[in-house]
Write a structure and sequence with these properties.
Blueprint: E1 13-15, E2 18-20, E3 27-32, E4 37-43, H1 47-61, H2 64-67, H3 70-86, H4 88-99, H5 103-123, E5 131-132, E6 138-146, E7 149-153, H6 159-172, E8 176-180, H7 187-198, E9 206-208, H8 213-221, E10 228-232, H9 235-247, E11 252-255, E12 260-264, H10 270-282, E13 292-298, H11 299-315, E14 317-318, H12 333-345, E15 350-354, E16 356-357, E17 371-374, H13 381-384, E18 391-397, H14 400-407, E19 415-419, H15 423-432, E20 437-440, E21 460-461, H16 466-472, E22 474-482
Parallel strand pairs: 7-8, 7-10, 8-9, 10-11, 12-13, 12-19, 13-18, 14-16, 17-18, 19-20
Antiparallel strand pairs: 1-2, 3-4, 5-6, 6-22, 11-21, 15-17
Bound molecules: adenosine-5'-diphosphate.
Adenosine-5'-diphosphate binds at residues 153-155, 180, 182-183, 213-214, 217-218, 221, 233-234, 237, 240-241.
Length: 484
């Protein structure tokens, strides 16, 4: 696939169900991470484009979209999901080209996007308020209302999945959305908006303004017409977003990074754990907020886990997105530099295995061979900082208390998992781990759209996915009627 195969022009913004030139007419170069080559241009939206998009969203709220009933909104979302499925092949190729992820992962992302639309389409008319028994002469009830215009600032690593969980939930609750995709990968965001138009989403209910974070993103985060911001991305930018939204006292959902551990106890089924221990670290070349970059292993199975992981690691292959190997390239030369910097800091560590870069891989692509370190101290930089690359560390522990201390010993708290056959231990750890999600004898549970997701500490706050997202993308209003 090339940009010429797209059915839309990515150098345009999508505002009010129309393709429009960015205000300044400027464009950004788009690169294929698999080859490092520029493949075309995308729109470089500005604050003026964000103004236009917010105005279109406000018009949608006071127009056809704002008048729609919840079941009508739900039916449109379901139709969008169907159109996503009908275009699965094109969307997957687009995402693979743009993000550099292996085609099978891109296909899984398309399926997740369609499922989000199905789920939130079905949920749209199932969120409702309650009645509250109160003083004599009163009737009290609550209403769930949209925030109004919601801003969605998303990263490049899983555009379709994040659009599904964030924009899907916002639209289900009747908000009108302005989406600022990442400058590195915005193709599927634009494609999705056009499919939503085809599915009958009224003008202005979803607007997409590609552009630079510091311009279009910052303009969206500080826009006075926006009622809620959801952001997924780095901790540094998350802090900027929280600061910007504070000026308008906006509710904000921040889904930031992680240093998520998997805890393997002596009584674990090591062979069952093995694929999860590795896949959770190398999926999307480790560029996943919920990547498991720390493997904590109890002494009794330590050698076994290290050796079995090393054996599999040595066979892992990185290659172009279309060659569909275990992992693709990193998104950019900059990201590769960052990961190489971390590898440099691990020079004195025990490097137990390194995967391969496939022989026919294009020279200019941003490839990193997956790398496994063992015997790492919990305080080492590689065990503390988010790397966002295919690098995992194995950390030994003696007992449950120490495992908890190490697991909770970073500033993050997004995902954790426990591998143990001891049910009582599972329950204890589920409570004691400081983490937005805890998995027992699995990791990620297949990523189900139903499962609330979000973090604590530097991993952020607020929850996306599942019904929780619908509460986050709405405001609760209490109505108290005195009738005597
Ligand atoms: P990553 O490390 O994944 O590239 P970033 O946090 O840099 O994540 O980017 C995530 C999203 O935030 C992107 O859409 C990017 O354009 C946007 N962004 C970057 N800087 C800012 C900013 N100052 N204000 C608002 N959005 C920004």
């Amino acid at each position: 696939m090339t940009l010429k195969d797209l059915w839309f022009d990515p150098s345009l913004c999508f505002i009010g169900n129309m393709w429009v030139s960015p205000d300044n007419g400027q464009a950004l170069a788009l690169q294929d991470p698999s080859t490092g080559q520029d493949i075309g241009e995308i729109a470089c939206g500005t604050s003026a484009d964000i103004d236009r998009a917010v105005a279109a969203a406000e018009a949608a709220l006071s127009g056809e979209w704002g008048r729609m009933t919840a079941p009508e909104r739900g039916r449109i979302l379901a139709r969008i999901g169907q159109l996503v499925q009908d275009h699965a092949d094109a969307l997957a190729r687009m995402e693979a080209l743009d993000v550099g992820k292996p085609l099978k992962q891109a296909k899984a992302d398309v399926a997740a996007l369609a499922r989000y639309m199905e789920f939130y389409g079905g949920a749209a008319d199932k969120i409702h308020g309650t009645t509250i028994p109160y003083l004599d002469g009163y009737t009290v009830y609550t209403l769930r209302e949209p925030h109004g215009v919601t801003g969605h600032i998303i990263p490049w690593n899983y555009p379709m999945q994040i659009i599904g969980r964030s924009v899907g939930a916002a639209l289900a609750m009747g908000n009108a959305a302005v989406l600022k995709p990442a400058e590195e990968a915005c193709l599927t965001a634009l494609a999705f908006a056009d499919l939503a138009r085809q599915a009958g989403l009224p003008d202005g209910a979803l607007n997409v303004v590609p552009g630079l974070g510091k311009e279009a993103g910052a303009a969206l985060a500080s826009h006075p017409g926006v009622g809620h911001i959801s952001f997924t991305g780095s901790v540094g930018v998350g802090k900027l977003i929280q600061t910007a939204t504070a000026q308008n006292v906006l509710p904000v959902t921040l889904e930031l990074g992680g240093k998520s551990p998997q805890l393997v106890f002596d009584d674990a089924d090591v062979d069952a754990a093995l694929p999860f221990l590795i896949n959770a670290g190398i999926q999307n070349a480790g560029q996943t907020c919920s990547a498991s970059s720390r493997i904590l292993v109890q002494r009794g199975v330590y050698d076994q886990v290290r050796d079995k992981m090393a054996t599999r690691y040595n066979d892992l292959q990185a290659g172009s997105a279309m060659s569909d190997l275990d992992l693709g390239p990193l998104i950019s030369a900059r990201q590769k530099d960052i990961v190489e910097g971390f590898l440099g800091q691990g020079a004195s560590l025990e490097r137990v295995a390194t995967g391969q870069i496939a022989p026919d891989t294009p020279n200019g692509g941003h490839y990193i061979a997956p790398t496994l370190f063992a015997g790492v101290s919990p305080n080492h930089t590689l065990a503390q900082d988010e790397i966002f690359g295919p690098v995992q560390v194995i950390i030994p522990f003696e007992d449950e208390a120490q495992a908890i201390e190490i697991a909770n010993g970073t500033k993050f708290g997004l995902v954790a998992s426990v591998w143990s056959r001891d049910g009582a231990r599972q329950m204890r750890l589920a409570k004691k781990l400081r983490s937005g999600q805890v998995f027992l004898n699995n990791y990620g549970a297949g990523g189900g759209v139903e499962l609330p997701f979000g973090g604590t500490g530097l991993s952020g706050h607020g929850r996306e996915k599942g019904f929780e997202a619908l509460y986050g993308f709405s405001m609760l209003k209490t109505v108290a009627a005195f009738h005597g």
